């Protein structure tokens, strides 16, 4: 009798490799934060989607280790803070774009956030004061830099 091949599950690692293959970051050139400021132009489905997800950014803990950062392509380990930008397609539907802390700062769409009200902080994050403080500091720095960049552009 032929031997049955042993199958082993590869655990996701933070390096972004599974079974020896490197995951590549998604191409997000067509997805933007706050693509449609006027909701009257949205389709009925996109309006329902916007009502379900009124925020533009979300901070929570990664529930599993399978979430992939859309900038670098590496896995976000379980129970690590992840920053999720709610990006919109050309029809107005929102999609989640999960990012590491470092990648969130580098993502060009993160600088479209204008105030804290656009960010949904998970209740579990708020329970841990150190994580909540670190997350708000990062969000505030992104919001502040975005405002400063737009002022610099207007001045030029």
TrEMBL record:
GO cellular component entries: nucleus
Keywords: Metal-binding, Nucleus, Zinc, Zinc-finger
Boundaries of every PARP-type domain copy: 57-119
First-listed, main subcellular location of the protein, grouped into a coarse class: nucleus
Compartmental location: Nucleus
Keyword Nucleus: yes
Domain of life, source organism: Eukaryota
The protein's name: PARP-type domain-containing protein
Region annotation Disordered: where it falls in the sequence: 1-21
SUPFAM superfamilies linked: Glucocorticoid receptor-like (DNA-binding domain)
Taxonomy of the source species: Eukaryota, Ichthyosporea, Ichthyophonida, Sphaeroforma
Gene Ontology molecular function, alphabetical: DNA binding; zinc ion binding
Matching InterPro entries: Znf_PARP, Znf_PARP_sf
């Amino acid at each position: 009798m032929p031997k049955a091949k042993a199958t082993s599950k590869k655990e996701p690692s933070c390096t972004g490799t599974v079974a020896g293959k490197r995951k590549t970051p998604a191409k997000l050139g067509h997805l933007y934060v706050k693509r449609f400021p006027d909701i009257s132009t949205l389709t009925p489905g996109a309006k329902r989607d916007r009502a379900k997800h009124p925020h533009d950014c979300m901070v929570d803990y990664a529930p599993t280790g399978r979430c992939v950062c859309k900038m670098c392509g590496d896995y976000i380990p379980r129970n690590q803070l992840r920053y999720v930008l709610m990006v919109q397609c050309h029809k107005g539907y929102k999609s989640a774009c999960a990012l590491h802390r470092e990648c969130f700062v580098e993502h060009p769409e993160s600088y479209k956030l204008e105030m804290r009200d656009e960010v949904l902080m998970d209740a579990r994050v708020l329970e841990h004061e150190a994580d909540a403080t670190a997350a708000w500091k990062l969000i505030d720095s992104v919001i502040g830099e975005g405002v400063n960049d737009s002022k610099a552009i207007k001045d030029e």
